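TA notes. Do not distribute before section.
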Amino acid sequence: MNLQSSVQSAAYVLSRQDAEDFLYREARFLDEWKLIEWATLFSEDGEYLIPPLDDPDGAPGKTLFLVYDDHHRLTARAQRLMKKQAHAEYPRAIVRHMIHNVEVEAGEEGQTRVRCNFVVYRSRGEASEVFPGHSVYDLKISSDGDIKIRRKRTTMDSDTMRDQKRLSI
């Protein structure tokens, strides 16, 4: 989605429709195992964070996160998961992301803050898992007018990972 012509100032806030369209595209990339395309949704200074279940409000640098990837590590993770040697996801699981309760507000430094709830269904072999949670995105418009993820913080709304067994990405 190119919004270059729509952006008039640094304080531009995405509409809820634009934010939802972006989140749905991100979910589709993940559901279709287009992980390389998914990684390109992040800006060069982008971050992807999943805090620990026992400290969902923890701060990076003070808490050990389940995932704390910059753009480079995120891209490398996506590339690894696409290989047959990625035993955690080969054969690939069937996943389906449900995104809802999307809220949009002005963020810092001209970014748009988007909050949403999600449920991810994952099925592989004879096992099925459900991952409920919520995410907070800081989205920005790139110099070429595309929406990019500056930061995505995903919090799992669960007190244990035992039932789910795996968390690939």
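Switch to the second chain here.
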Amino acid sequence: MNARTDPIEPAPSRVSGSLKVRVWRGRHSEGSLQNFSVERQPAQSVLDVVTAIQRHQEPGLAYRFACRVGMCGTCAMMVNGKPRWSCRTHVDKVAQNGTLVLEPLRNLPHIRDLVVDLTPFFDKQQRAFGRFHAAVTPPEDFAAVRPDEKGRREADAGIECIGCAVCYAACDVVAWSPDYLGPAALNRAWTLHNDRRDEAGPARLEAIARTGGCTSCHSTGSCTDSCPKQLNPTASIAGLKRAVTRHKLGWPR
């Protein structure tokens, strides 16, 4: 009696050919695109390409990454002119005529090669009161926030933002007006505005109503189109505009 043997799937074959990669090299926005050639591989991500260049061709290439599985957002960069997570972007979907152009995120100070300074991005979250403000006197019991409450649903819709700055790099208003708080900071403000346990409501609305706040948004939707988490910062900002209007008119929330 012959023993049963299951067929063994063959290992994935190599993708023939090479990929032309142009990578921004330089410091503080002074530099140029440097050409590299990388062998094509099956299921190859943009981060795989950058790692191959750093390991085998240019050890001095600076870039950021941490988790490699789309959880941290640190590997974000401009890929053929659009901000993306490089670890979740497959070469097959974005390479144009076998070419990749990799640059640092827009709208942020440049440090070196593909690395940007995220300080202004996080500073704007502070300006938008982007942290939870608890009551001075703790409540006697835990606050019960029902899942079906409107505010809870509004907050949940934007709470998954991980601060990768892809939406910030995609935002044309930030490019035109560097003082603009940006979609991530305003999305965070919206989630906290809808948390009835938070005590910074009026102060937060005053902060985001100033020059560079939510009313500066042109609602073009670039942030929503680019968000790797499929969030909708455009809708969050629209909600803030309504909330600011009600606040200025003295209407209840």
